[in-house]
Design a protein that fits this description.
7 helices, single chain, mainly alpha
Length: about 210
């Protein structure tokens, strides 16, 4: 195996790892909390910080952030977006959401940092899918490459729509008390993370790999 082949495999492997973590992140919190600690499904992924799954929540945030920081992409454009996504993932882990009951002023400020950086993190992930992953020379696109590009853009759109739905939920409307029992924020986040993870698995050629 040549050094060039090792670099390619390592690069694709990193993309696949990022994809796997994205897919499993919400499921680990949900299923792990339920099975290990009998923790009921929380209102959001961030709410797991205030359960016995706190260390897992923080750890997954750091792992996601470090892998994104390690991802170099094709050029400076890719690196800037991956650094932004990586740093914001770590900040989300370090600065928890404000507790649901009687938050202090400091906790409210920290919570705003958490929400703001989480929003930037997910936007960066959607930017990867919509803008960066489909790049290439159109004349050399194979049928599978065109299909992958469609998937990337669909995943990016899914992330943005999930963000919009979660944002709409927080608007003061009569729907809030009706939707609360169904955990719309958690499932909105879950859909966004699944889209993020699936796009990275496709980019890592775990799915729809060209044969040549």
């Amino acid at each position: 195996m040549t050094d060039h082949s090792r670099i390619i495999i390592s690069w694709l492997g990193l993309r696949r790892l990022i994809g796997i973590i994205g897919l499993l992140h919400p499921l680990i919190l949900w299923i792990g909390g339920t099975i290990i600690f009998s923790t009921p499904l929380q209102s959001s992924m961030s709410a797991y910080y205030y359960t016995d799954m706190r260390d897992v929540f923080v750890g997954l945030g750091f792992v996601t952030g470090f892998f994104l920081l390690a991802y170099k992409g094709y050029d400076t454009h890719d690196r800037i977006v991956s650094y932004l996504a990586g740093f914001t993932a770590i900040i989300v882990a370090l600065f928890p959401a404000a507790p649901a009951v009687n938050p202090t002023k400091a906790e409210q400020i920290i919570g705003l940092i958490h929400v703001g950086t989480a929003f930037i993190f997910l936007l960066a992930l959607s930017y990867f899918c919509i803008v960066l992953f489909p790049k290439g020379i159109a004349s050399t696109f194979t049928v599978k490459k065109r299909l992958r590009n469609t998937i990337y853009r669909a995943c990016g759109a899914t992330i943005i729509i999930s963000l919009a739905v979660v944002g709409f939920y927080f608007a003061p409307t009569p729907l809030q008390p009706i939707l609360d029992p169904y955990h719309p924020v958690f499932f909105g986040e879950l859909i966004a993370f699944v889209a993020f993870g699936f796009a990275w698995l496709v980019k890592g050629q775990a799915i729809l790999k060209d044969e040549n």
